[in-house]
């Protein structure tokens, strides 16, 4: 996954260091685009307008137009800038297009009114106006053209990224872009296709290979990757026939309070459902009866209660370390005590520690402890919790999700799971893995508690921490997708449904 600048560097490496001609890459890009869309177009009825801008995105548009016309599609080509403004590889492909015997309509000479009138004749628009070279806010006449297209009934296929969106994400205040039904991006997904609201303009997204050698991508090394189904099936832990409960991890969950009894239940159940060998729940004695009645498989560690919340763990770090392979702390803890036991864990528990929800609230006071902690620490904030931890506004975090989570993870040496649509898992080294599963049915209380249990389960069963977290995040989202694809309405999915369908989700993956 790349920023605009990284994509330019990749292109430059392929062209200057490896020697691939820019015109050839453009030809590949255009042909790959056509291969991707022809199954969606009915040759008999589709009336297509290709809108071509002055840069290389427009150059792709000429290749696409030539290829579609050669195949017998009904295509009108609208060149937006005056002919002489088209330069370089785009010029080359414009000349090839014209010399192949095809014509164009010059927007420049007809102007916007003529364009508006003719737009009603088309069923489809191919948007080759602006690509990764777009900067700032839309200028005339692109702004007017895009407004007209968005008002029309045309279905829009966009080349590389929707015109008006920058590859890195766009200021919400100035957001104005073509609304695509499909985007075909070249070689690498662009950052903005995983950031809302720009994502809404992309429609369905496909990534196509245009023949840029992998080496060029490796050299630029963006450190950002999608975590795909193939990655999950390749790395999910497999249960050995000879294994016993101790082989799959003994986990401790520190969660719950008198007024939040559901959160620890969800976390514990999810942890069991994802294969943990033994799970103990540490919870205040005042909340224990209500919680225990809903948990059959777990064991309990009862803590002294103050204000209905855990006052102290009443167990030394040495004992914790002997008994448990990893600890998750936070869901439903409450915020009315001092949370000193969290500081003690950060300092003295030398095994993996996951901190979520109210655990993150207390963590804010103990952040310096993370700077000296050497063992694996995983933080799972949503945007609001991350804003609180970093003293930034939610708006600021939303706009710079990738950068801010990377800075935080590197500074504190933690694995940071910044939740939301397209959850980002960042390693202490700053590598980022983006999750693409899940949907808005997850935007409901309790779903984060489920994720925490799932992360705990997998970090006890796989050595590689990032893989474990990314797999848990993938499966969590996939459970939501499974539900909405199998008859659940997204309004009515609740957190415990996710836990209940994990067996089917795992089964589907393992048999795919
Ligand atoms: N460089 C390469 O090797 C390849 C590039 N490809 C295509 O080339 C695109 C990038 O090409 P370019 O760098 O030429 O960039 P663009 O095609 O995005 O075009 C830049 C043009 O847009 C204008 N522009 C920028 N901001 C504007 C604004 N706010 N309002 C109105 N006009 C504005 C600029 O003046 C310039 O004329 C990619 O997105 C992709 O589609 C592909 O052909 C594959 C190979
Ligand atoms: N619109 C959405 N699309 C996809 N995933 C979402 C969306 N909204 C929330 N989620 C996911 O749901 C979970 C919510 O976690 P969180 O906010 O901590 O919930 P809670 O604290 O209530 O348990 C996260 O895993 C997040 O990524
Ligand atoms: K475009």
TrEMBL record:
InterPro entries: Carbohydrate_kinase_pred_CS (IPR017953), CARKD (IPR000631), Nnr (IPR030677), Ribokinase-like (IPR029056), YjeF_N_dom (IPR004443), YjeF_N_dom_sf (IPR036652). Gene3D superfamilies: 3.40.1190.20, YjeF N-terminal domain. GO terms for biological process: metabolite repair; nicotinamide nucleotide metabolic process. Pfam families: Carb_kinase (PF01256), YjeF_N (PF03853). One of its GO terms (molecular function) is ADP-dependent NAD(P)H-hydrate dehydratase activity. PANTHER family: ATP-DEPENDENT (S)-NAD(P)H-HYDRATE DEHYDRATASE, ATP-DEPENDENT (S)-NAD(P)H-HYDRATE DEHYDRATASE FAMILY MEMBER. This is NAD(P)H-hydrate dehydratase.
